[in-house]
Amino acid sequence: MTETPAALREAHHADVSGGWLRPAVFGAMDGLVTNIALIAGVGGGGVSPKSIVLTGMAGLVAGAISMGLGEYTSVRSSNEQVAAEVAKERRELERHPEAEARELAEAWVARGLPRDLAMQVADAVRRNPEEALRMHVREELGVDPDEQPSPWAAAISSFLCFSIGALVPLLTYLVGFTSLWLALGVGGVGLFVAGAIVARFTNRSWWTSGLRQFLLGAAAAAATYLVGTLIGIQGGVG
Predict the structure, then answer these.
(1) Sign (positive/negative) of CA torsion 33, 39, 45, 51?
(2) Alpha-carbon distance 230 to 46, whole Å?
(3) Which long-range contacts (CB under 8 A, 24 or more apart) does 215-218 make?
(4) CB atoms < 10 A from the CB of 205, how many?
């Protein structure tokens, strides 16, 4: 059976322009690590299960809002910066089209294209102002002006995934268990599963990705647990 070349298959690449995957992954991991560390810290200090739940829920709400607003502002600011640079490039193409065409050709020559051919292609592109603008922005800024990430997609995905991640280590408390170590164990499983899911999008080993996230979260939890324990002992908590 002959395999169809990837170039002939429609949509053989994943959509990497929507801007949702990075904030979703960051949100989920941050939610998990933040609340696991919070729970470990206050639990290590010897507070009651009710206080642990209150701390975790406060961390969930505050963190989710902060992540959503931060992602929206960050992505929108980045898009606005790109738009400003695109406008600058548009003005240059209108004022100095020949010089801009030569600049584009020189970029292609530097990549190995014969000079005559590079000049011919640049001259042909110059006749289509919108395509010329798109080509110059790609070459000079390294971005596609028509495929900028959505700030709303980034904000919503970050908000939701942080909330889900932060909820995981609280689940055992919410259903009636009071063991700190059980909650941390569930959080650790959540970290491993989240890392394994991320591997689905990156073609990495699910086992390696999951273990990496688990170890990072465990390190954060260990640090805050130690701090909580020391403060609890010194302050006489519990």
Answers:
(1) positive
(2) 10
(3) 216/33, 216/191, 217/32, 217/33, 217/36, 217/37, 217/187, 217/188, 217/191, 218/188, 218/191
(4) 12
- Could you tell me the two tokens for 142? 């390294």
* Encoded tokens for 226: 């130690």
- The Cα–Cα gap between 213 and 204 comes to 13
Rounded Cα distance, 54 and 161, in Å: 20
pTM flag (> 0.70): yes
Interval 39-91: pLDDT, tens: 999 999 999 999 999 999 999 999 999 999 999 999 999 999 999 999 999 99
44-49: long-range pairs with CB below 8 Å, 24+: 44/180, 44/224, 44/225, 44/226, 44/227, 44/228, 44/229, 44/232, 45/228, 45/229, 45/231, 45/232, 45/235, 45/237, 45/238, 46/232, 46/237, 46/238, 47/232, 47/237, 47/238, 49/173, 49/178
Q: Which spans in the chain are helix H?
A: 21-44, 49-95, 97-110, 115-126, 129-141, 151-167, 171-174, 180-202, 206-235
Burial letters 121-147, b for 16+ CB under 10 A, else e: bbeebbeeeeebbbbbbeeeeebebee
Identity (one letter) of the amino acid at 139?
A: E
Q: Pull the structure tokens for residue 164.
A: 């889900």
